[in-house]
Description:
The protein has helices at about 25-30, 105-110, 115-120, 165-175, and strands at about 5, 10-15, 15-20, 40-45, 50, 55, 65, 70-75, 90-100, 100, 125-130, 130-135, 145-150, 150-160, 185, 195, 200-205, 210-215. The chain is mainly β. The protein has a single domain, classed as Fumarylacetoacetate hydrolase, domain 2. The chain has a six-stranded mixed sheet with strand order 4-3-15-8-9-12, with helices on one face. A five-stranded mixed sheet has the order 6-18-17-13-14, with no helix packed on it. A three-stranded antiparallel sheet has the order 10-7-16. The longest helix has 9 residues, at about 105-110. The two termini are about 20 Å apart. The structure holds zinc ion.
Amino acid sequence: MRTARLTNGKHFSIGKILCIGRNYWEHIKELGNAPPEAPVIFIKPASSVIAEGETVVIPPYSHDCHHEAELALLIGTKGKDIPVDQAMEHIAGYGVGIDLTLRDVQGELKKKGLPWEIAKGFDTACPLSAFVEASKVADPQNLQIRLTVNGEIRQDGNTSMMIHSIPAIVSHMSGSFTLEPGDVILTGTPAGVSRIVSGDTLVAEIPGVATLRVSVA
Ligand code: ZN
């Protein structure tokens, strides 16, 4: 069982990991995607989570694994159909996650109109940091997100650039899925996604909130 750790010592068993796609304009443009009319939602299984210091294993059926550094929300309180103005009360903590994506496999599946799970939910596809208590983060909608590969900056964005805000995402997702303690929400990636290969070291960072280092087998 995978565990989400809060800096106050509290632990949660990780439930579902809900993700939003295409939530930053610059990233939509770099992939040549159309801006979505409604948020694009998908799920990664808890079995895809790895922690700080662990190793990413790119499945043999892909030759194009991309990093997507994202602000991660840890849900602390159950809710369904959560109004936007109450959404923040359901967040127990903030961390950083990497939504690893097999871009070649995802592209083929998208072309055929098929689901993406094997491109986004494979084992090790969701490196997650520890979470800092929500009360310690003054403005989660104004956080730098950075990702380096072997020390070189690839992604450098800010959560103020999100299309759908944090409370809007929580509220929207809770309309389809009951949010439960231990669920994690990944809020989309800023621009700069790129390919990773064997031997790379990735560091995702939200300064003042979380750092996450993983290597690629
Ligand atoms: Zn993503």
